[in-house]
Inverse folding.
């Protein structure tokens, strides 16, 4: 059974720092992995999608990597800003179906 | 990509009543899902909305409590029936567009039952 873990559960850093959020999964048979952002009480915004054949994806200050063999993905945020404060969720889509398996999220606070 | 309109964005309801949440997508999608997110928790899949047939429910969720309709490839509704305070959550619609592999989400419905 696929399980997804996100570390740390919460992170508070000063503005301007580069930071890394971690996501690990137990079964390497994945179709893709997505990183989402969720603001309090709101829906989810897709940040980056990495297909199983890819190693990384970049969008602006965000870079996500995927190491399928070790069951790990990282989300790198460069030059963090207070507007980056949100909960970041990692979700894995298994090879066998469309359902997403979710991590519990990392709550990020960027202090001005 | 897909643009999803989910309504209502929030509601406060009396216990024992029902609320229907709508999810409208701007393009045809392969898959539509309904999730629940309880306070401080991650997402839990309620069901997969199947076009023209009964939804596929996950363990712990039943059709009598969460009836779902999906009359076409761009629209679905979720009803939360006979509500109790324990149903207070954010309910989210998610889609996977045709010829795409990325999942997209609506802005969610924040439900409070009093």
């Amino acid at each position: 059974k696929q399980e997804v873990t996100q570390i740390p559960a919460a992170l508070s850093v000063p503005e301007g720092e580069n930071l890394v959020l971690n996501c690990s999964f137990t079964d390497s048979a994945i179709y893709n992995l997505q990183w989402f952002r969720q603001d309090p009480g709101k829906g989810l915004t897709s940040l980056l999608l990495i297909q199983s054949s890819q190693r990384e994806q970049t969008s602006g200050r965000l870079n996500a990597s995927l190491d399928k063999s070790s069951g790990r993905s990282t989300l790198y945020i460069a030059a963090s800003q207070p507007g980056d404060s949100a909960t970041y969720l990692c979700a894995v889509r298994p090879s066998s179906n469309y359902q997403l398996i979710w991590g519990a999220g990392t709550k990020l606070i960027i202090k001005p | 990509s897909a643009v999803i309109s989910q309504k209502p964005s929030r509601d406060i309801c009396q216990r024992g009543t029902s609320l229907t949440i709508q999810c409208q997508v701007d393009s045809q999608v392969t898959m539509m899902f309904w999730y629940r997110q309880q306070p401080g928790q991650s997402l839990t899949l309620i069901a997969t909305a199947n076009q023209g047939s009964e939804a596929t429910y996950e363990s712990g969720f039943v059709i009598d409590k969460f009836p779902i309709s999906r009359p076409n490839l761009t629209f679905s509704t979720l009803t939360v029936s006979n509500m109790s305070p324990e149903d207070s959550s954010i309910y989210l619609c998610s889609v996977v567009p045709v010829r795409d592999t990325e999942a997209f989400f609506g802005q969610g419905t924040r439900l409070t039952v009093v």
Notes: The interface with chain B takes residues 31-32, 34, 36, 41-46, 49, 51, 89, 91, 93, 98-100, 102-105 of chain A (CB under 8 Å).
